[in-house]
Amino acid sequence: MSAPITLNPVELPEIRALIAQYLSKYDLAQCVRASQSWNALFLPYIWDQVILDQKTVERGFNLESLEPHSHLVKSISVTDTLKFGSLIAVCTNLKSLQLRMSFGLLKGFQQTLKHQLEAVLTPNISIVCLDLDTVHVDWAVIAGLKNLRELKLTNCETMIGSSPADFWNQDDIKLEALSLTFVNIPGLWEQSTGKYPIFQNIKALEIERMTKLPESIQVEIVRQCPNIETLRFRPNIQSSITMIMVRLAAAGSWPKLRSLFYDGPKISDQGVVDILTSMDQCDQWDVSYADFTPLSFQALNNHFSTLTRVNLAYCWSVTSKMLQEVLSSCPLLRKFRGPTIHARDIVEGDPWVCSSLQTFVAFIDFGSQDGTTGTSGGDGMELEHSDISAKAMLENSDTNEFQRLVYEQISQLRRLKILLIGVEPSLTEDVQNHRHGLELKLGKGLELLSSLKELEIFGFNGTTQNMELEEVKWMITHWRRLGQIMGTYCHNGREKDFLEVFNISSS
Known about the structure:
Blueprint: H1 13-20, H2 25-34, H3 36-47, E1 49-53, H4 54-59, H5 63-66, E2 75-79, H6 85-90, E3 96-100, H7 103-108, H8 110-121, E4 129-133, E5 136-137, H9 139-143, E6 150-154, E7 157-158, H10 165-168, E8 177-181, E9 204-208, H11 215-223, E10 230-234, H12 241-250, E11 259-262, H13 269-278, E12 284-287, H14 294-301, E13 309-311, H15 320-327, E14 335-342, H16 343-348, E15 359-365, H17 385-411, E16 418-420, E17 457-459, H18 469-478, E18 484-486, H19 494-501, E19 505-506
Parallel strand pairs: 1-2, 2-3, 3-4, 4-6, 5-7, 6-8, 8-9, 9-10, 10-11, 11-12, 12-13, 13-14, 14-15, 15-16, 16-17, 17-18, 18-19
């Protein structure tokens, strides 16, 4: 009988590739030095992305050390330096270029940057993803990138002498993702006869604050993308675009739309119904301002089985019971944001099923159980002092029980990275430290949240707290990844000093 074959899983290329994704550049370098067999596998992960900024240049960026591995470089990120031409020139397999400049640098070196871009982009037709921030755009050069699939422009101006038509009037644009934020495209489609190019391949479209582009043109860009799956649209706040967008959605202009991020004028209740009904499947619903009645909420309810993101934060007609229903009915939910959810609705409602939730943002209100409901009996006569004391004791007992039950519910969300259970900052001006929220005290239930091992940000703005040093120390001890706490702990500043010792920011 032959001896059994022993196999070390680490020797499998697939396993090593998986390991490499979770290692830092330093760790990868150690792996490369460990053995010759590991060298070939981990070397591409070291050189796949190169970051070049002013500090790197000042320290003395060594191009010679990169050249032997330049064929491994797939992505380059450049920030506030014009010394990127020679670097990009040697990277013949470049797929992604990110270029971010400051306004001051751009103002004095516009022509230099223009020549640099022309020199590096023209031969690099293999570039698939281009991300430009605060750069003057030469549309003809971008049009020459025939393999381009993702284009992101932020704070960009059109280069003097460059015609937007060179890019925008093409019939064979292969872009799959387009993002435009504060981009000036003068004269775009001004001479159009009503016929616009159709961007058949675009699946993800983002248009934000395009203040220098007429609303009619913004609408046409969106309209000419019939196959979008993800739409992020942030028009001017006084815009009249909302009704047009609702009509287009209701008419079936985007049959494949699955994710909507809309931050503009309020969408009416019927508008919400029309949009959600037009979507075969909704994965992400992030609409900042919208009316929600039982009618439109039912339209959202039809997508509960597929929703991964829900943002209803500024939808003031949304009720606490609606928010509770979302949390107890959306098993795939990853990000949740709402206005106020009452503790009683959490305790008396169904258990939350969103066990993979990573972001929870909503004020958990205990106001209805805090003894502020009045001190009069049902017959209108004042209660005797002993009756008032008994009533307060009973309500305090209910509150303590509710506190613990709410803590138990939150403790099941073991994947949480962001937990904000206070009042929205914009709403705290008149109520700062006057809202009765979850009481952050050991013994009240805080200790149950030791299960939140991945928590990075914790906030309780606008709530009354009376934490002691032991509560703060407990958080730091049990939430190892915690990097920021937002809220007022108590009447003194000792906790803030303590947090700073542990390098945790406080606001």
